[in-house]
Specification:
With about 300 residues, the chain is mainly alpha-helical. It has one domain. The protein is built from 15 helices and no strands. The termini are far apart.
Length: about 300
């Protein structure tokens, strides 16, 4: 029996990996693909830089997740939250598999690795200084401070949506160039909104726990019914900002491939409006929202690559 228990017990490496919530890290390659495709459309490509940017961004996201778990444990949120497959943290501290100190150290170490990669890129593309600085501040300040803000949901949209898109676009360029075009700023808007919407809908199951432990975000302010309407508006805006730059000739028509995820987004919106106050019934909508957030930037990226190849 002892031997059987030892076999079943996961290794510390695996537990630390699970603490990063790897199932959510797939967001990073999806949004990076969009920035890389935009740069590819303009004739730029740098495979090693793109891979390194992917690694750095993954460490940023892992740090955010670990530091969020640590702070939620210290606040008491982790003990009150109703965990779903898409929200509520990793639960590893609560389960006794990791100590809060270990999770804090993991969050700091992953952030330092990401910053080291960021500093390397800043030396090659000085314009990245501002994006690395903002990303680092958002990572450190998000859970302890920014979650007490009414615009909490905006910050992940910036840090894990817009910045990776713009960063990937820049590092694909020749060293020393670091040009920012108005096109990439338009391209970065849909991921910004979608990642914000991801946090928004994932806050619905946590409203009671968040209220009791000091969070003050828009979902709490509005209540779940109005927040469900707000989530639907965010989805509408994300698709609007795919259509608008195409309509004005700023982006190629092929970017409209991003609209192919709209039927799934519609299902997520309907499910959220119907089940905003029922966690169990809300879970399918949470899953549909994840598919929407991941698929949309990838579809847009495919559109940009097609535009380049047939040009």
């Amino acid at each position: 029996m002892v031997i059987l228990n030892q076999i079943k017990k996961p290794s510390m490496v695996k537990i630390l990996f699970l603490e990063t919530r790897p199932q959510f890290l797939i967001l990073i390659p999806c949004v990076l693909s969009l920035g890389a495709a935009m740069s590819f459309l303009e004739g730029n490509f740098n495979g090693p830089h793109l891979i390194l940017a992917l690694v750095g961004s993954l460490f940023v996201h892992a740090s955010v997740n670990s530091l969020n778990d640590y702070t939620d444990w210290k606040r008491g949120t982790d003990m009150l939250v109703t965990r779903t497959p898409f929200s509520g943290g990793s639960g590893l501290i609560k389960a006794g598999l990791l100590s809060p100190r270990t999770v804090l150290i993991e969050g700091i170490v992953t952030l330092l690795i990401a910053l080291a990669i960021g500093i390397y890129f800043i030396r090659l593309y000085p314009v990245l200084l501002w994006f690395v600085a903002v990303g680092g501040l958002l990572t450190v300040l998000y859970t302890p401070i920014l979650t007490r803000s009414v615009i909490t949901e905006l910050f992940p949209g910036i840090g894990l949506g817009a910045i990776p898109v713009i960063g990937a676009y820049i590092v694909m360029q020749p060293v020393g160039q670091g040009r920012l075009s108005h096109e990439i700023l338009w391209v970065a808007i849909p991921p910004l909104i979608l990642v914000s919407a991801l946090l928004w809908i994932n806050e619905l199951p946590d409203v009671k726990a968040d209220l009791e432990t000091g969070r003050r975000h828009a979902v709490l302010l509005l209540g779940t019914k109005k927040a469900a309407i707000g989530y639907t508006i965010l989805l509408f805006l994300s698709y609007s900002f795919i259509i608008i730059p195409v309509a004005f000739g700023i982006l190629d028509n092929w970017v409209l491939l991003g609209l192919l995820s709209a039927p799934i987004a519609f299902k997520a919106a309907v499910g959220t409006l119907k089940n905003h106050d029922n966690i169990k019934k809300l879970i399918p909508a949470l899953g549909q929202n994840v598919i929407t957030v991941l698929a949309t930037p990838v579809l847009m990226a495919v559109g940009l690559m097609i535009a380049r190849l047939i040009d």
